[in-house]
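Exercise: predict the fold of this chain.
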Amino acid sequence: MTLEDARPLLGTALSHIADHMDKVLPESEYASNAALPTDFDARTQWPGLMHPIRDQQRCGSCWAFSASEVLGDRVAIATGKASPVLSPEDMVSCDSGDSGCQGGSLPGAWDYLTSTGIVSDACLPYSAGSGTAPSCSKQCVDGEDWDSSIVKASSSYAISGVDHMMQDIMTKGPIQIGFKVYASFMSYQSGVYKKHEDEMIPEGGHAVKIVGWGVESGEDYWLVANSWGPSWGLDGYFKMKRGVDECGVETMGPPYAGTVSSTATVMI
């Protein structure tokens, strides 16, 4: 992927976790969790419940893809059943608090998921791949009732610190993060990514879904789902150096997630 190909895809407005400490869960929420394992993969922890890699195409909708996928995965985990793919198009076209193909923020995405919620992908398939988002129709293409297709997060929260990020993933499911993208990221194919020392100016901000972590050749990493299709990177995934705030991955989203409301079971 060339820089010219990738720049339109980097549609995330990043902000530091320090500005969102009023949104983090109390320390007591993490106090009783078990010791953290050396490696963890949500795909093997909850087999058949994680949703597949998708492709945002030519629209800066990474913020919507990763948020909708985190919510969808957490619906499946909370109910113990495979759940329908949720609609990033709903967020791109209908979330007036963000900017569609021109980008969005993680806190803004989760405000929408808690206040309004999103429908299934079958109800509103992705059609903004050309870079232009259609208007918000609130009409299901598959004949479903729009309101009955909606799934909401019952709450959302920021996550501060590597250990809390890991504990959240291990107990509740994948989380959404944002990071600063440098030119070298575009040519990622395998291994644990870290930017080149001489790269000073990022090309933009990107939002993705962390599904786990591990160690490769002595380097701690996050296991991350991208939204550039399954032919990119490691079948659509990549490994990012963990524990040193590489590219702002542990602070600059900020890391975000949500809990699933009881109405999520409507979809099952």
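Check your answer against the key: The CA atoms of residues 189 and 233 lie 4 Å apart.
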